[in-house]
Amino acid sequence: MTAVSDxxxxxxxxxxxxxxxxxxxxxxxxxxxxxxxxVTAYIGFDCTAPSLHVGHAMQIMTLxxxxxxxxxPIVVMGGGTTKVGDPSFRNEARPLLSEETIExxxxxxxxxxxxxxxxxxxxxDAIMVDNAQWLDxxxxxxxxxxxxxxFSINRMLTMESVKAKIDNDLPFSFLEFNYSIMQAYDFVxxxxxxxxxxxxxxxxxxxxxxxxxxxxxxxxNIQLFGLTTPLITTSSxxxxxxxxxxxxxxxxxxxxPYDYWQFWRNTEDADVGRFLRIFTDLPEGEIARLEKLxxxxxNDAKKILATEATAICHGRAVADEAAxxxxxxxxxxxxxxxxxxxxxxxxxxxxxxAVATGLAxxxxxxxxxxxxxxxxxxxxxxxxxKMQVDASALNPDGVLKxxxxxxxxxxxxxx
Length: 415
Fold this sequence. Notes:
By secondary structure, the chain is of the alpha/beta class. It contains 18 helices and 15 strands.
């Protein structure tokens, strides 16, 4: 296991201490580079959806840690690579998106970075670029002659992401096979344009990172580096950011800041210290104190985690508002106006309302909630799955409060 003492540079020592580190290429040389100069590093994000999600937060926090240490992060939007689609460890090919959809997704994703990073023209200010700027302009035959000749099919077939497809007899198109070459070329192009020496990503991208390092050595005679982070799962083994209601999106129009705060508030007990280190900026001394709390007091640490993580993603004022909404809802029983709100037509069946508001993923799941006394209307348990809800159920504020368990609450306003 890698220890803080294995490195001399402040950035890598902190990276290890906060749980970000998984592996790197040429450990001693990378450590020396961080000691010697301001390092320019990049991470790429494809535009497959109109928002990033919590599963991307580790990578965005990596860029944040780089900037906090005085280095220069580059956010690479995959306007070009998204047209091919990353096939890594997927059973099916990604659907081909239109250029219009990719551009729409890209513009929406840009919002995710504004609170995490500082962009500008300063020496450690973040840069945002789109790899379509160079990938879309490549000519096929010249690209094959200049770049393609440096890639060995034999070696590419041994990459874990490729081998997994072949061993399991999964479809793998020539289009997808080019993704690794395009990502490798990104690294070289970023070195040429910005002096970028480091690519970081999750550990599942190791093969693609190494391909870029090898290409840099062959075409530019330069040593490039890779730095990977662990793939985050919860203590119970669940994939980070996956819930019964789907992905935990970063954009507020796809998941409300209140629901984002609640996601972190519901962190498993064993994960509190680890997530405080990775997803907040709290100092180690404070984290060490919080993770020692037991029983009901540990809930205070979870609230701090929720507020600090939400503040980084959505801003301090929004995070404080979410925390106050939660306090009023759970501690005072008040009808907090900051709860997620839906405008729906009444009358309607209770099952339809539960599904429409995301409290249940299906009618059958809503029935199970009711059978277990888990679904409540205006804080009263619902017992009849055939219940019809009309305007007579509205409270004096003209809304309905629907709850699933003790931690998920929404407001319904008549359309």
